[in-house]
Amino acid sequence: MKKVILIFISLCISDLLYSQSLQPNDSIKQFVDYLTSGNHLSPKEYIFQSFEKNDIIILSERNHKEIKQYELIVDIIKDDRFKGNIYTEVGVFNSQK
């Protein structure tokens, strides 16, 4: 019974400490408002707009398990507006001498 009470108290405390409510004075409010406003470019359009100003665009990978990043890259490459070269990282560090 003591374990159950301890677990319950731990959950209540963690809920209070790690709640993600968005208060008006929250530091991320401006970013949430921007994303929910709909007045922004899609990631693909943002990258193509960046090509108008820059010759080289570098897309860095996040976690390899996140498939959305690869779907975006494939979508960009398939677009008729993409005319360029692609350089990728291949291999792993532990397979080299």
Task: Provide a descriptive summary of the structure in words.
The chain is an all-alpha fold and 97 residues long. The protein has one domain. It is 48% helix and 0% strand. The protein contains 4 helices and no strands. Helix 3 packs across helix 4.
Concise overview:
The protein is mostly helical and 97 residues long.
Write the layout of secondary structure elements.
Layout: H1 2-17, H2 29-37, H3 43-53, H4 68-78
Helix pairs in contact: 3-4
Which features would summarize this protein structure in a list?
mainly alpha
Largest sheet: none
Spatial shape? flat
Uncertain regions spanning at least 5 consecutive residues = none
Order of helices and strands: HHHH
Count of domain modules: 1
Distance between the termini: 57 Å
Coarse structural class: mainly alpha
Radius of gyration equals 22 Å
Kindly report the oligomeric state of this protein. single chain
Number of strands: 0
Task: Please report which band the strand proportion falls in: under 5%, 5-15%, 15-25%, 25-35%, 35-45% or over 45%.
Answer: under 5%
Average pLDDT across residues? 79
Approximate helicity band: 40-55%
- Total DSSP helices: 4
